[in-house]
Amino acid sequence: MLEPLTIVRHPLVQHKLTLMRQKETPTAVFRQLLREISLLLAYEVTRELPMTTRDIETPMAPMQAPILAGKKLALVSILRAGNGLLDGVLELIPSARVGFIGLYRDEKTLKPVQYYFKVPPELEDRMVIVVDPMLATGNSSAAAIDLLKKAGAVNLRFLCLLAAPEGVRRMQEAHPDVPIVTAAVDERLNEKGYIVPGLGDAGDRMYGTK
Ligand code: URA
Known about the structure:
Blueprint: E1 5-7, H1 11-21, H2 27-45, E2 51-57, E3 62-68, E4 74-79, H3 82-92, E5 97-105, E6 112-118, E7 127-131, E8 134-135, H4 139-150, E9 155-159, E10 162-163, H5 165-174, E11 180-182, E12 184-185, E13 188-189, E14 195-196, H6 202-207
Parallel strand pairs: 1-11, 4-5, 4-7, 7-9, 8-10, 9-11, 10-12
Antiparallel strand pairs: 2-3, 5-6, 13-14
Helix pairs in contact: 1-2, 2-3
């Protein structure tokens, strides 16, 4: 079983995260690092994918070999920053089905407002991995998971790059059944809802919009 909170302390993950945090890291390098880290995080978050066996023949002998079982898993990106994580995870699991949830954060209330929702069918039969690089207040992540549960999802994971303790608490209160996988839990949120020390606005850093 995945723990309620997994912090991936692998040296490659931690090294790449440090490079991403540095404010002088250019957009293209930031995006590349995010793709590389996503692969490593995806490896952790998919540890419990169901397995079966298939009868195969190697050049040497027949064998019963392990293979993934069940319906294709679903990756759900919380727009827009989720797409940066999504790209890397999809490289590792190219046959995954993909959904998108558009939520923006009202800058005054810090509450999520939905503007887009499109997810794969038969969510109830799939492992669903929600991806969003920054687990800050936890409001949009918890809201996204509410929507997915309403759409039938029962077997969920949440994958992020960085979390604030406040966001982890919020998610664990709202959705104790959803394990969180992250590369780090930082100190705190600031008054604007940004993670400190964090890495700034993940979407802006990824797409060069600031
Ligand atoms: N979203 C971001 O992109 N960065 C933060 O620090 C918090 C939320």
